[in-house]
């Protein structure tokens, strides 16, 4: 652990002491990133909101047992991912209904939550929407661990070390997951993209 305490961990230590305002600060800061991460795995906006709420309920209930062993965001996203995996397993017990719902959700969701930086404004809203939808579909089709690793790295700007801890794999495996995810996306999106935010840096 670094000598300087993670400011979010410091807030969580205040929550541990019963500081509700500190908890509200954490919710305000992380509600959108947590909801977005869940939405990419379970593309139902209502369910993503509900699961995000469950994440923060669990955070609050776990406050008394909280210890600073990593950055707060690492701990938080680990809780969020675990709840997503639990929901996927629950749906697995009702596969037909779950697959139909997921497909409908993806079709309704389109490219929500994905910012497209590759299409000039002059190309028009229709092309932009089509491209965004293709990116969304390609990301959603990635294996869960690849998708989560890539999103945490690309959108939440977490380090390889933090992502490795969240996913529960080695540092080298984390780098491999992100590399494979990028290669898969570049292959699937080759007809649509010349360059893009998912390429190698």
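^ Assign residues to that structure.
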């Amino acid at each position: 652990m670094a000598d300087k305490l993670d400011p979010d961990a410091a807030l969580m230590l205040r929550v541990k002491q019963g500081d509700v305002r500190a908890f509200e600060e954490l919710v305000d800061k992380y509600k959108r990133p947590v909801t977005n991460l869940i939405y990419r795995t379970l593309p139902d906006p209502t369910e993503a909101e509900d699961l995000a709420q469950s994440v923060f309920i669990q955070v609050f209930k776990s406050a008394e047992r909280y210890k600073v062993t990593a950055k707060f965001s690492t701990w938080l996203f680990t809780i969020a991912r675990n709840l997503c995996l639990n929901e996927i397993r629950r749906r697995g017990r009702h596969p037909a209904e779950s697959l139909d719902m997921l497909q409908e959700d993806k079709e309704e969701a389109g490219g929500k939550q994905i910012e497209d930086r590759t299409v000039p404004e002059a190309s028009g809203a229709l092309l932009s929407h089509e491209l965004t939808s293709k990116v969304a579909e390609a990301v959603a089709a990635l294996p869960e661990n690849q998708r989560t690793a890539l999103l945490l790295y690309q959108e939440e700007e977490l380090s390889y070390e933090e992502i490795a801890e969240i996913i529960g794999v080695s540092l080298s495996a984390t780098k491999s997951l992100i590399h494979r995810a990028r290669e898969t996306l570049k292959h699937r999106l080759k007809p649509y993209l010349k360059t893009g935010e998912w390429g190698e840096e």
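Confidence is low (pLDDT under 50) at residues 95-123.
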